[in-house]
Structure formats: structure tokens, C-alpha cells
Specification:
The protein is α/β, with parallel strands linked by helices and 292 residues long. Helix content is 41%, strand content 18%. β5, α6 and β6 form a beta-alpha-beta unit. The structure holds S-adenosylmethionine (SAM).
Length: 292
């Protein structure tokens, strides 16, 4: 089994037949059938014998095989319990633990402490597309001790995560991710390398976690609330969108923007993370003044 080429469509069809497995569209089950792409993902993640890997959604285990061979230890989290029997044959390694649970319910900090202590921890996955953004936000917000995230996502999502100001892809998630990580699109992947084929193309994105957030702010919650409030309606000026989305008095907001040195007529999509940081800090100071 060790050298079984799970990514070969023929082997995959055999596994499907022998276990009577049916792909679940609602669980985003589009499995990889290209060995080069799998190697490229593992190369991008720089998996070596000091790596502790968390894989979300191993599916049949195509990517998992390569992670087990190259990494020190792998913890895979799979929601679909009908894969338990398949895994007994397809992932026969002694450096893996598979947890059959929804990733969104996992206490990853505890998992890292208990299972991957002392290793260079990385998260690697071909993510289920229906839940990509919540998974990435959970990873970033819960502040795990990890160095890298390498994930396959829908191409448009990768472009949003990697987007810079003044582009149509730039959105609140670009800022949320770039607050904590350097981003890089490692490759664009055609839909032909999946079984079954999704309608859209994909991309592998690399998120290199920064030692500390890219900017320092007085109140992180305020920063994200300002960012979300600024992208609610893209055509509106920063003055109008923050005041209406956050229900913030316009006269006070004008003072805040002036102190932050931000033109009130500008749109959110033109502002950098640093500029959002300045607005957020002035709003925090303003709320402290009101309390005192
Ligand atoms: N890694 C495999 C591959 O590349 O061939 C499968 C990738 S497939 C796109 C996504 C996998 O995530 C499926 O196995 C699916 O069952 C699993 N999955 C879906 N939702 C999940 C969740 N909330 N938590 C953990 N796994 C999930």
C-alpha cells in the first residue's frame, strides 16, 4: 500500500468501487488526481523531518501520503466518517493520527500542545470550498503557534487573500489575512486535476505567519470592525460607509479622520492596512475620551 498511487484516476476508481464510496458535493469532496500538484503543495509548505503537519480534509489520503512520508508527524481532521475504513488501507503510516470531526469544532491550540509540541507546525490542505473563508479566519483568529499555511482554494478566493489596495479583489479578508501573514500565490491549478471536476479553477496560496501582526493597534476588535464597516458598500466614501455601517456619528467621524490624516472622501478599497490602523486608533482614543 505504501507506494499505491492514490492520485491515479484508476486507483481512485478502484477505491470508490471497493468501498462503495460516493463523493459528497455538500462536503466539497473534489479529490486531487495529479501527483505533480501534490508534490508542489508539499514543496511549497517546505515539509521536512521537523514538520508537524495539520491537514484539513484528507479525503482518500492522496496529499496525506506525501505529508506522512516527508513530515515528522501528521494530524488529519476529516468530517466524513464514511472514510474510516478507506483510510485503514490508504494511509497505513505510524506517524499519523486521524480525527473524524468538523475542523471548526477542534481546539487546535490544545491539539498542537498535545500532539505536535516542539515541531515546526504547518497547516496544509486542499480545502473544501464551501467553508474556505471560515476555516482560514478560524486559523488566523485563534492565533495558533504555526509558521505556515499552504492551502488549495478557489482561484478567486486566493486572489482576494493576496490582493493589494485599489484592485477589485481587495476586500476585508485581504486585510484580515495580511494583518497576520505574508501572502503568495504559489500556482494556479486547472479544474482538470480533480475528481469530480469542480466548475471553477483553483490556486495554491501560501500564508507565511508573521511573528507579530503587521501593524500594532490599540484595539484589534476595533480595527476589524472598522475594516468590515468600510467595505460594506464599496462605492461609498469612507466617511459614509463607516458612519452608516457602524452607526457612528458623522461629525465625530470627521474629527477622527482628520486626526488620522485620512481624506473623508476616499473609498475603503484605496486604504492600506496602516491607514485603517490609524483610523482604528483614533476611534479607540475617541471612545476612551467619551468613557472618561
Ligand atoms: N485532501 C483530499 C484531496 O486533496 O484529494 C480531499 C480534499 S477535498 C477538496 C476536501 C475534504 O475535506 C473532503 O475529504 C471533505 O470530506 C473534508 N471536509 C469537508 N468539510 C470539512 C470540515 N468541516 N472539517 C474537516 N474536513 C472537512
Amino acid at each position: 500500500m505504501d507506494d499505491i498511487k492514490l492520485y491515479s484516476p484508476k486507483v481512485m476508481k478502484d477505491v470508490l468501487d471497493s468501498y462503495g464510496f460516493k463523493f459528497s458535493k455538500s462536503l466539497g469532496q473534489n479529490f486531487l488526481i495529479d501527483g505533480n500538484i501534490i508534490n508542489k503543495i508539499v514543496d511549497t509548505a517546505e515539509i521536512d523531518d521537523n514538520s508537524g503537519v495539520i491537514e484539513i480534509g484528507p479525503g482518500f489520503g492522496t496529499l496525506t501520503q506525501c505529508l506522512c512520508k516527508r513530515g515528522k508527524r501528521v494530524i488529519a481532521i476529516e468530517i466524513d466518517k464514511s472514510l474510516i475504513d478507506v483510510h485503514k488501507n490508504t494511509i497505513p503510516y505510524d506517524n499519523i493520527k486521524i480525527i473524524y470531526e468538523d475542523f471548526m469544532k477542534i481546539d487546535v491550540n490544545k491539539l498542537i500542545k498535545e500532539e505536535l509540541e516542539g515541531m515546526d507546525v504547518k497547516i496544509v490542505a486542499n480545502l473544501p470550498y464551501y467553508i474556505t473563508t471560515p476555516i482560514i479566519m478560524k486559523i488566523l483568529e485563534d492565533k495558533y503557534k504555526i509558521s505556515k499555511i499552504v492551502v488549495m482554494v478557489q482561484k478567486e478566493v486566493a486572489q482576494r487573500l493576496n490582493a493589494k489596495p485599489n484592485t477589485k479583489e481587495y476586500s476585508s479578508i485581504s486585510l484580515a489575512v495580511q494583518y497576520r501573514a505574508d501572502t503568495k500565490i504559489a500556482m494556479i491549478v486547472p479544474n482538470t486535476v480533480f475528481m469530480p471536476r469542480p466548475k471553477v479553477d483553483s490556486a495554491v496560496i501560501e500564508l507565511n505567519i508573521l511573528e507579530k501582526p503587521r501593524i500594532e493597534v490599540l484595539d484589534e476588535k476595533m480595527l476589524f470592525s472598522v475594516i468590515r464597516g468600510s467595505f460594506g458598500q464599496r462605492r461609498k466614501t469612507i466617511l459614509n460607509s463607516i458612519s452608516s455601517n457602524l452607526n457612528y456619528p458623522k461629525d465625530i467621524l470627521k474629527i477622527v479622520l482628520e486626526k488620522a490624516n485620512i481624506n473623508p472622501g476616499i473609498r475603503g478599497e484605496a486604504l492600506s492596512l496602516e491607514e485603517f490602523g490609524r483610523i482604528s486608533d483614533e476611534m479607540t482614543k475617541q471612545s476612551l475620551e467619551i468613557i472618561n
